[in-house]
Amino acid sequence: MPDNVIKLIQITIMLALLIPIAAMLVWVERRLIGIWQDRLGPNRVGPFGVLQSFADLLKILGKEDWVPPFADKLVFVLAPVIGAVCVLMSFAVLPFSPDILIADLNIGLLFFLAMASLAVYSVVLAGWASNSKYALLGGMRAAAQTVSYEVFMGLSLMGVVLLAGSFNLTEIVLAQQHGWFIQSQFVGFVVFFIAGIAESHRLPFDLPEAETELTAGFHTEYSGLKFALFFLGEYLGVTLISCMSVVLFFGGWLMPEPLDNWLPPFMWFVLKVSFFVVFFILLRTALPRPRFDQLLGFGWKVMLPLALLNLLVTALLSLLEVL
Amino acid sequence: MWSQLRTIWLVLKHTFTKADTVEYPEKKPYLAPRYRGRIVLTREPDGQERCVACNLCAVACPVDCIALQQTIDDDGRKRAEFFRINFSRCILCGFCEEACPTYAIQLTPDVELAEYDRQNLVYEKEHLLIDGVGKYPDYSFYQHSGIAIAKKGKGQGAKEKPPVDVKGLMP
Fold first, then answer.
1. Minimum-distance CB partner of B20 among A38, A282, A285
2. pLDDT, average across residues A122-136
3. Which of A20, A292, A318, B99 is the right S-S partner for B56, CB 3.0 to 4.6 Å?
4. At which of A62, A77, A109 does a domain end?
5. Are residues A69 and A53 in the same domain?
6. pLDDT (tens digit, 9 = 90+) per residue, B32-71?
7. Are residues A21 and A70 in the same domain?
C-alpha cells in the first residue's frame, strides 16, 4: 500500500479513538467528581453509567441547530469548528509509542504551540460573533488569559528543548532514556501544567466560561451540535495537555529498566496520561476560581519570572555541563 | 499556595469516603410515622366518618387547596357533602391537621404524589377517605362534644357529663 493510504487509515483510526475518548471523559469526570464530593455521579445508563455520554450525545444530536438572529452567522458556525480542529491537529505530532505516530515533524513542539495559539480564535470569535454581553466578556477574558499564559507556556518548554537539543517530540522522548526531564525540569513542568490548565479553560482557570458570573461565557448562545464541538475541544484539550506533559517531562512511552517489559510502550503511555487526566479532574473538584486580576497578576508576576529563571538556570547548568 | 495543596489533598482523601447518596426508587429513606405527606380523612372506631365539615381546615390552609360543603344527616350527624383537596397546590404544611377539631384530617408518610396529568392530583372525598382511625385510635367526636345525635341525647356520650342548668342557683 502507498504511504499516503496508510497515513489516511492511521488518521481515521486516531479520530475514531480520540472523539469517543473525549466523550467518555465527560462521564469519567462526573463519576470522579461524584466520588470526591461523596456522591455517586451518573450510574443509571448502562453498567456503572458508561453509556451516559452516548445518551447525552443522542440528546444533543436531537436538538435544533439554531443560530440566534442577532449573531454573525458565518463566524458563529465557524468558531466551534476552529476550536475542535486546532486541538485535533496537535494530536498529529504526538508520539504515542515508537510506531504510533502520524506526522514526524522536526518542529513538532512548535507546531503544538502554534495550534494552541490558534485555538484562541475559536473562543474569541465565538464571543464576538454571539453579539451578546456575556459572550463578549467571556471572549475578552479568554483573549487576555490565553495570550498571557501562552508566553510562559512556550518559555517553560525551552528548558526541555535545551536539554534534548531538538524540537522533534520523538527525539525529546528518546533523550529521556537515562532519566525523565521531570528531575531537572520540575519548575518547568509546574509552569507548563498551570499554563496548560489556563490554555484549555479548565477549572480553576475557567474564567472565560465562569458559570457563576457569565452564565456560560463565550458559549452562552450555543446549543446542540455546536455546543458539543466546544465540549469536544475542551476535553480533547485536557487529553492533549496530559499527553504533552507525559511526552515532555515523564518520558513518553519509556519506563525504567525493570518495568518496561511488563506492558507494551503504548500502554505505559496511556497509563501515564490517565494519571494526569485524573489530576486535571481533581484540580477542578478541589480549587475555587480566582478573580480575573489575580489570574493575570499570577501569570505575569509569578509564572513568567519563574519560567525565565528556570530557562536561565538550565542554560547555565548545561553550559557548565552539569546536566 | 500551601492552602491549595492542602485542599487538593483533603479532597483526594474523599476517594475513600462512602457516598451519602440514597438510590431512591430502589432504596427508600425511612419516614417517621408523623411525617407530613399525603392527606387522608380518617374514620371513627365504629366506622363512621369523623369529618363534620366545619371548614376550619379550609380556613387554615395557606394555599386554599381544600374545598368542601357541609350537610346534616337525618340522625343529626354533620358530614361533608363533598371534600376536595388539590394536591398540585397543597404544600403539605399540616395546618389543616392542627386546625381539625375532630382529628378527621391527617397527614401520612406517603410522599409519592407524582402524576403525568395535573388533573389527577385533585383528590375527591372517595380518594381521601380511609377505613382506619389514623393516629388517634380511640377518639370519637360525638362521644366528647355533647351534641345530640340519633340514639344519643345530650350528655349521654361515654366521655360526656350531663348538661348543667345554667340558670339554676344551686352549686
1. A38
2. 86
3. B99
4. A62
5. no
6. 989 999 999 999 888 888 999 999 999 999 999 999 999 9
7. no
Q: Looking at residue B91, which CATH number applies to its domain? A: 3.30.70.3270
In this structure, is residue B150 part of a structural domain? Answer: no
- Residue B24 Cα, gap to closest chain A Cα (Å): 12
Indicate whether B88 belongs to any domain. yes
Q: Do A78 and A145 lie in a common domain?
A: yes
Report chain A residues whose CB lies below 8 A from the CB of B14. Answer: 35-38
How many helical (H) and strand (E) elements, i.e. helices and strands, does chain B have?
Answer: 4, 5
Q: A132 with A17, same domain?
A: no
Give Dmax over CA atoms of chain A in angstroms: 63
**If you count DSSP H runs as helices and E runs as strands, how many of each does chain A have, helices first?**
12, 0
Q: Which residues contact A101 (CB under 8 A, 6 or more apart)?
A: A94, A95, A170
- Pair (A56, A148) in one structural domain: no
**pLDDT at position A169:** 84
Closest-CA residue in chain A for B8?
A286
Which chain A residues are Cβ-neighbours of B17 within 8 angstroms? 38
pLDDT digits (tens, 9 = 90+) for B70-114: 999 888 888 899 999 999 999 999 999 999 999 999 999 988 888
Residue B20 lies in a domain: no
Helices A265-286/B2-13 angle, 10° precision = 110
pTM for the model stands at: 0.77
Backbone angles phi, psi at B16, to 5 degrees: -100, 10
Q: Does A259 touch chain B (CB under 8 A)?
A: no
Domain range for A173? 63-319
Same domain, A58 and A97: no
The three-state secondary structure class of A249 is: helix
- The residue of B1, B9, B11 whose CB has the most chain A CBs within 10 angstroms, and thus the best one to mutate to test that interface, is B11
- Residue of chain A nearest B3, judged by CA positions: A287
Q: Answer yes or no: is B97 within a domain.
A: yes
* CA–CA separation, B138 and B144 (whole Å): 11
Number of domains in chain B: 1
Judge if A54 and A2 occupy the same domain: yes
List pLDDT tens digits, range A131-171. 888 888 888 888 888 888 888 888 888 888 888 888 888 88
Cβ contact, residue pair A282, B4, below 8 Å: no
B10 to chain A: which residues are within 8 Å by CB?
286
Answer yes or no: is B61 a known binding residue. yes
How far apart are alpha carbons A266 and A95 in whole angstroms? Answer: 10
Mind telling me how many Å the CA of A42 is from chain B's nearest CA?
Answer: 11
pLDDT average, residue stretch A90-105 = 80
8 A C-beta contact, residue A33 and residue A41: yes
Q: How many domains would you assign to chain A?
A: 2
Residues of chain B with C-beta less than 8 angstroms from the C-beta of A39:
19-21
Measured CA to CA, the distance from residue B95 to residue B104 in angstroms comes to 13
Q: How far is B11 from chain A (nearest CA, A)?
A: 6
Same domain (yes/no): A14, A106: no
Calculate how close chain A gets to B114, using CA atoms only, in Å.
20
